[in-house]
Amino acid sequence: MTQKLDTLQAALEAALGAQIQALVRARGEITITVSAADYLAAAKTLRDAPALKFEQLMDLCGLDFSDYKNEPWDGLRYAVVSHLLSVTHNWRVRLKVFCPDDELPAVASVTELWASANWFEREAFDLYGILFEGHLDLRRILTDYGFIGHPMRKDFPVSGNVEMRYDAEKKRVIYQPVSIEPRENTPRVVREDNYGGLH
Predict the structure, then answer these.
(1) What confidence tens digit (pLDDT) does each residue in 127-177 have?
(2) Which three-class secondary structure state does DSSP give residue 9?
(3) What is the C-alpha to C-alpha distance for residues 20 and 7, in angstroms, rounded to an integer?
(4) What is the pLDDT of residue 118?
(5) Is the pTM of this model over 0.85?
(6) What does DSSP assign to residue 170?
(7) Helices and strands (DSSP H and E) totals, the chain
(8) 116 vs 145: CA distance, rounded Å
């Protein structure tokens, strides 16, 4: 496995060069980080370069780093991570890009490269509020059309902003402000050493 990762790393460095801001090898996988300005070009190179040939986008998701590992995060808040597969070479890579503006997180859409990005990008938009420039149908996919906010952001209230219920007098579903009091949930803390085999 190490030799295969060495080969993949060499191919990535040769094809992308200075576009790679960071390259991390962990748990038998490679994660590369590129800038938002280089994201679309780097993705195209990953797909088209004969030495790489990442023909399939397996997954794409948004991330909110505002409270990473229960510690304050010193850096850009939102990121998009793609998992790519090369059937030709039988290897995978993780591509990470941070959105350059925390107030209006946006990166280029990769739907022109991989059609499977369509719904993944809509999901990242819906849940995190990340905009994908060039996406032809960027609208909510999991939450309701009238939903306020983005529920996977770490500052989103646990109880939400609005609730819906059926009103018997109006004979329709209505939306109203949340009527339950917000509360702090304290998660169970595991204090055992090496819990679950983790070190």
Answers:
(1) 999 999 999 999 999 988 778 889 999 988 776 767 778 889 999 988 777
(2) helix
(3) 16
(4) 98
(5) no
(6) T
(7) 3, 9
(8) 23
Cα–Cα distance, 176 to 113 (Å, whole number): 41
Residue 182 in any domain: the answer is no
Is 195 part of a structural domain of the chain? Answer: no
CA distance 141 to 104: 19
Say which CATH number the domain at 137 has.
3.30.460.80
Q: Which stretches within 49-189 are classed as H helix?
A: 117-128
Total structural domains within the chain: 1
For residues 10 and 32, what is the distance between their CA atoms, to the nearest angstrom?
12
Residue 104 lies in a domain: yes
* Residues across the chain: 199
Instruction: Write out the residue range of the structural domain in which residue 16 sits.
Output: 2-143
Can you give 115-147 as a three-state secondary structure string? CCHHHHHHHHHHHHCCEEECCCCCCCCCCCCCC
Strands 162-167, 91-98: pairing is unpaired
**End-to-end Cα separation, the chain, in angstroms:** 23
Residue 156: inside a domain, yes or no?
Answer: no
Spatial separation of the C-alpha atoms in residues 195 and 199, rounded to whole Å: 8
195 strand-pairing partners? none
